[in-house]
Each structure stands twice: as C-alpha cells, then as structure tokens.
Amino acid sequence: MTSDHRGQVEELLADYRRSRDQLASVQRDLAGITASATSPDGTVTATVGTGGTLTELVLADNAYRAHRPAQLAELILRTTEAAAAVAAERTYRTLAPVLPADTDPAALVRGTADLTPEEIAPPPPPPKRRAPEEDDFALRDTWMDDLGRTR
Q: 49 with 33: CB under 8 angstroms?
C-alpha cells in the first residue's frame, strides 16, 4: 500500500515539474515578444516589448521637416499603438495554448478575464457636498435652541 502512495506522489511531482517547465517556457516566450511598426510615410518606426512598452523610437532625418510638432507627436502615438497591437496579438497566441479552452487570452491580459462590464466599471463619484447656505445656519441655530430646551 505504501508503494501505491509513493507512486501517486511521484506522479503528482512529475506533473508539477512539467507544469512548472511549461510555465517557465511561456514566461520566456512572453518576455521575448517585441513588435515594430513604421508610419506610412516611413518617418517614424516604433518598437515595443511585452505589454506594449515602447523600447525604441527611430525618427527619420526628415521627420521634423515633414511634420509639424503636433503632427509628428500624433504620428508617433499611432505608430506605437500599431506596434503594440502586433505585440498584443503575439502575446495572445503565446498564451492561448496553455489556457483553458474557454478562456479569452485578450481578456486575461487586460485583467478582465471572466468579469462583467458592471464589475469592471469604476464606482460612481461621491456626491458633491454643497456649500452651506445662510438658511442652513439659521436651521442649525434653531436646532441648537431646541437642544438647549430639552435639557
């Protein structure tokens, strides 16, 4: 009977080690995800890493002449977003094989997984306190007068 338990424990440990190795492999794959995008006119190239973090930005020599500052800033943002979308898709493809079949990798990465929109929505702001009006002080004085009479 002891050997049955020992066999079960060894099988559980082997399963654990396989799961741990798979997790380490997925983590390495996720850490290595990068993506680049270049603007349509070729003046901006953005490279992002895991999570869409900007890791490199290359501006062509003529970028400042070709665009006004606000236009260049917008082009940088759009190009970075395009690179981040590619990186996110790679992240989803890396995670999908190790997740349960009904799990949406995009929702998991966003942190929403099985939450409903109502559960994710921010709480409503607290009601604003209104400034006291002159009449409020008159009511307070009346209330305090009443308090003094009951003693």
A: yes
Where the chain has pLDDT below 50, the residues are none
Q: To which residue do tokens 């190795």 refer? A: 21
**Helix, strand, or coil (residue 101):** coil
The end-to-end CA distance of the chain, in Å, is 82
Distance separating alpha carbons of residues 85 and 78, to the nearest angstrom:
11
Contacts of residue 50, defined as CB under 8 A and 6 or more positions apart, other chains included, come to 30, 31, 33, 34, 87, 91
Give pLDDT tens digits for 95-122: 888 888 888 888 878 777 777 777 777 8
Q: Amino acid letter at 124?
A: P
Cα gap 106→116, rounded to integer Å: 14
Residue 147: the pLDDT is 62
